Amino acid sequence: MDSEEPDYSSLPLKQRILHKNWKCRLTAYEEIQKLIDQDDSKEIQIISEPELLRKIVTDSNVVAQEAGVAALCKFIQFVDPSLSLRTRDVVVPSLIEKTLASTRAGTKSKSIEALELYVELEDPEPVVNHILPFLQNRLPKLVAGSVEALVTIYQDFGAVTVSPKLVFPSIPKLFSHADKNVRAQVSSLSLVLYQWIGDAFKDIIFSELKPIQQKDLTKAFESLESTKPVQKRFLRSQQANQESENDVSMTEPDIEPVSDSSAKIDAYDLMEPQNILSLLPSDLDSRASSAKWKDRVEVLEEVQKVVAVPRMASGDYTRLVRILGKSLKDANVQVVQLTATILFLLAKGLRGEFEQYLSLVLTPLLERTKEKKPTVLVSLCDALNACFESSSLSAVMEETVLQMANKTPQVKVETTKFLIRCLKNSKTAPSPQHIDLLIPVALKLVNDSQAPVRNAGFEVVGTLMKIVGPRPLNEFMDKIDDRKRKNIMEFCETAEVSITETTIPSSTTRATDRRPKPSLGPTTKCSPVPSKRGPSSPLKRAPSSKQSPPSRRAIPSVASRTNGLTNRSLTTARSISRVPDTNVSSAERLELENLRKEKKQWEQEKEKYEWRQQEHQTERVTLMKEINNLQEKTKELLNEETDKTVIIKSKDTQIDRLQHDLDLARERIRDLENEYKTEGNGRVNTFKSDAALPADPPGRFSPTLSDGVDRLSLDHAISEHKENLYGTDYSKLLDSSDESWRRAAEVTFQLKARIEKMKARSKYSRV
């Protein structure tokens, strides 16, 4: 007969949790769940100790452990979040190590649920960071269970709430794991992340995977449904926001609650910024300005490799951008293409931070669009698009409009096309000042003699009309004929713009368009409004008491346009506007007169303000024209300077060549002098010995003497030729050897006399 189980209910709860008997501990864990349901704060305070909870989830008995994990889930879900957060760093590592590799499905599922409850409390990052070390554990089951927990967390909370940057470094290593279950789980994790971040996953991970792994993942991605993932679980803070939004939507049905679950994830935010400034060549300045184009191309290729990163760290890139701005003016198209590619990578890598360097490169980029080579032009256009994406429409508008008036037709066309792309992709409408600046230039484009320039002008005006509407362009449209107006309207109808509101800013609208509309009652009829009503008319009294007063929303718009009126005067004017003409007291009449004076003063100030605005605008346009002229002059001066530099370099080359020829001539002269000295000394000695001997027959000495004379005559002729060729320089070089030349002349004279004697002797003998 079996002995009855002892009754452990009389023992204190903490003692039962620490009891050796697993059944006693099991009853304690089950009682914890009941106490939490009953909201027994005293007992809950006892079990909220982190070490006690850690012991519960690491119970040696699998049945008791499952009950303990279930008790932990209830504790996190219903107890004060501050108590649960205090236990997180102690309980979570032990929970992962002892339960995620469990063979009991219930224990494993409850453990993942507990991790998700911890994620809900505040910040998901600490929980994910506790899981990551176990991805390198020796036990494949524990690694697979940890990856499965991550898959569940990202499936339920989404990659918007839980940053995928935390797990990116571990994914390539897990794909190389020896266990197939681990590889299967990391594939599931990759599919979940791809659903949330799209192709950004490929950009970040694929470079570290093997080709076969890339191929398998690509097939798996293609098999996924195109439906967008939805966040299923939310943080406590997100739940509170949803409740408040639901309350607002109940009171104001027109306002729909907005959820962050559908927010678009930018791959740029997932990248780690890299510091490239320290990797640039140290001799970048000297090599970029080298006279040899190969050196310039070589250093730009090195820079391109350095800047080819998806995200760059903040820093001072002024020096690099200045060098690139100068390189855009290079005569070599390969240098220009490389520079444009580097600027494209810089703008993509820096994004908003690149806007501060825009003034250094935008004008050179636009001016260089005169290139005819398609590949160079494509690189320049890509760089221009990246510059706009990293800045705004207002940042590129002025320089672009100035270059639309360039003398080169291709620059006009490409600059106008660039502005069209900016207008179509801009999220904001151009300002009134920019519209006024663009209209005169666009008028010249549509009246240009070349068809490509005219078509570009039609398209830019049509795109602008699509954004701001036809009213601001009425004055412009009146100046062109019907055929051109038809072309503009065709482009306006087919243009696709990103901006949703096709209205211009209120400061450019006429007073008739921006006056407040009266709020009509259910039975009130609206009287016709005069079309020529000015900005001062909203303060007039209503002609009849039946007409409804202006709405409360209209008053701030009027006040925003006034400079002299105060809130008190507006309020008084509004009250007076409702008073009939009869039965008006003297005090009210006096106040009405004061208001009229204030109104007149306001009108005068408004006229002065508008006049000053018009004067400033005219001055601004004039200054813009002067800037354009100065830029043209600067360009001409730079071209002249370039031509002069080329001429100087050509002269330097000629001088170097002449100097080289002179050095060779001097060497040759020295060789000839040495040779002459040697031969001359030998002949003098021979002649002296011949004078002491008896006379020889003429035939014996005649050839030798004639040969010597011929050689001397030849040397003399050569020297005269060189003197004529090199001028006085040759004579100067021979100053040191004048004595040798004199001796040579004397010998020559003696030889000639001896020859004459020999000739006379031969004649005498014949006779």
From TrEMBL:
Signal peptide (UniProt feature, chain positions): none
Main location: cytoplasm
Family: Belongs to the TOG/XMAP215 family.
SMART domains (alphabetical): TOG
Superkingdom of origin organism: Eukaryota
GO cellular component terms given for this protein: cytoplasmic microtubule; kinetochore; mitotic spindle microtubule; mitotic spindle pole body; static microtubule bundle
Protein name: Microtubule-associated protein
Coiled coil (UniProt feature): 585-682
Xref: InterPro entries: ARM-like, ARM-type_fold, HEAT_type_2, Stu2_CTS, TOG, XMAP215, XMAP215_CLASP_TOG
Pfam families linked to this entry: Stu2_CTS, XMAP215_CLASP_TOG
Repeat positions for HEAT: 438-476
Subcellular location: Cytoplasm, Cytoskeleton, Microtubule organizing center, Spindle pole body
Stretches assigned to the TOG domain: 2-230, 269-501
Skewed-composition ranges (Polar residues): 236-249, 559-571
UniProt keyword annotations, A-Z: Coiled coil, Cytoplasm, Cytoskeleton, Repeat
UniProt-recorded Gene Ontology molecular function terms: microtubule plus end polymerase; microtubule plus-end binding
Chain positions covered by the region annotation Disordered: 236-258, 502-571
A GO biological-process term: meiotic centromere clustering
